[in-house]
Amino acid sequence: MILTAALTIEILFLALSVQGELVEAGLTRFRAAGLSGGLGLMTAVGAVGSAAALGNAGEGLVAAALAFGAAALLYLAVEELLVEAHEENETVLLSAMFFVGFLVIYGLAQVGG
After folding, report:
1. Ranked by mean pLDDT, which of 9-13, 23-27, 95-99 comes out on top?
2. CB 7 within 8 A of CB 28
3. Alpha helices, DSSP H only, in 2-112?
4. CA dihedral angle for residue 40, residue 45, residue 51, residue 53, rounded to 10 degrees
5. Nearest to residue 22, comparing CAs of 41, 38, 9, 35?
6. How far apart are CA 24 and CA 34, in angstroms?
7. What's the pLDDT at 50?
8. CA pair distance 56, 53, nearest whole angstrom
């Protein structure tokens, strides 16, 4: 349920960002909203398809699929953070805090899991 809520919020903000970019590119607001909504629905289609494909799968395969998904999301987050980090002057403190943040999240995952 937590993952569903987090993905829903993420997709909302992604859709708003895409819609803003499409309107700036010259599309009407209605068409941009339709395209953003369609892209958001692709996530639901993927979830239903995955549930159908992995419905009778063993625990190992489901765990591997979830691990792949988590790694893909982590990659996307890190990629965006690195792009943003290079826009600022890099300092030792900034680099250290970047890795401290990952260690904290990893530690929280170990305590919770």
Report:
1. 23-27
2. no
3. 2-24, 29-53, 59-85, 92-112
4. -140
5. 35
6. 15
7. 86
8. 8
Tens digits of residue pLDDT in 29-88? 999 999 988 888 888 898 899 889 888 888 888 888 888 888 887 787 777 777 776 676
Question: Torsion angle of alpha carbons 64, 61, 11, 80, nearest 10°?
Answer: 20
Q: Measure the CA angle with vertex 108, ends 7 and 54; round to 5°.
A: 45
Residue 19, Cβ density class (10 Å: 0-12 exposed, 13-18 middle, ≥19 buried)? buried
What is the rounded CA–CA span in Å between residue 109 and residue 113?
A: 6
The amino acid sitting at 36 is S
Q: In the 8-state DSSP scheme, what is residue 88?
A: S
